[in-house]
Amino acid sequence: MINITGAAYYIYKYCKADAHESIGYLSYLLIYLISLILVMMILLRMSPVNYDFYLCPLSIICYFTFITELLPALIDKYLSIQINTKYYISTISVFFICMIIPIIIKQTNYNRYPESCASYDRGTLCTKNTNDMIMFEFLDYAVKISNDNSTLYVLPEGIAINFILNRGNPSRYYAYMLQEQVFLNDDDYIDEIKNIKYDYKIIVPRIFDNNYRYGINYGVKLVNWILINYELIKEDNLIQDGLGRLLLYKRKT
User: Fold this and answer.
1) What digits encode the pLDDT tens for the residues 58-104?
2) Cα–Cα distance for residue pair 51/12, rounded to 1 Å
3) How many domains are contained in the chain?
4) How far apart are CA 3 and CA 58, in angstroms?
5) pLDDT (tens digit, 9 = 90+) per residue, 238-249?
6) Residue ranges in 71-207 assigned as alpha helix (H)
7) Whole-angstrom Cα distance, residue 198 to residue 205?
């Protein structure tokens, strides 16, 4: 609603402004329109790509201009109430400070949790998250049983794990996420695995919108093929948020 109102407001201001002022209004209008398009793409699920990171800075600009400029102008025009800028900004500031306080409390409580660290070729990683600690133990085991010459393939996405373990991705397919489903299917990955014959395979649980899971809602044929041709040698449960299981497989000889 803020994006629609803001876009309409700046269209009106742009049409009424002179050549010098129109540039500023046009800039704000473009920001509101881009933000509106991204919001609609998320709400209508027009694409599997996650737009949240792109939307965040634009949303901040939209909310700031809406609260500090657009809202007072609308109140003044339609309600004939002249807002005292000093008291208005002070009230808004207090409101947002009150919203920040719960975040600060949550962060303070989080900092009290014990920290766990693990060292790899890339450096030392430290965390207070229970799932990350489980992941560290799981990766330590994967490092112990494998060697530098063995191939390790991670599904549905292994960029972070490959980076931590200082391993190159053995496949031309770096991931099998929602985006890849547009132009790839299970048979493409099965053919790739047959050709390369990976020594080890890690399956990392990934949950998308509406509880959409790899190996359950998509990639089922690929996972079933792995179960037939690979042996499960390690399994760990991620206990927070019901994320699922970490699975390590070894190719059957």
Assistant:
1) 777 887 888 888 888 888 887 888 888 788 888 888 888 898 898 88
2) 28
3) 2
4) 10
5) 655 445 678 899
6) 71-78, 85-110, 130-145, 159-164, 186-196
7) 20
Longest dimension (CA), the chain: 81
Q: Which amino acid is at 212?
A: Y
Quote the CA–CA distance of 173 and 188 in Å, as a whole number. Answer: 9
Whether 112 and 128 have beta carbons less than 8 Å apart is answered as: no
Encoded tokens for 30 = 């473009």
Note down the domain range covering 141.
Answer: 116-251
Any residues with CB less than 8 A from the CB of 55 and at least 6 apart, and which? 35, 38, 39, 42
Q: Are residues 175 and 221 located together in one domain of the fold?
A: yes
3-state secondary structure of 178: coil
- pLDDT tens-place string over residues 209-233: 556 677 788 888 998 999 899 999 9
Look up the pTM and report it.
Answer: 0.59
> Which run of H or E residues covers position 179?
none
Report residue 110's pLDDT band, with 50, 70 and 90 as the boundaries.
Answer: confident
My answer on whether 236 and 126 are in the same domain is yes
| Tokens read off for 133 | 């600690």
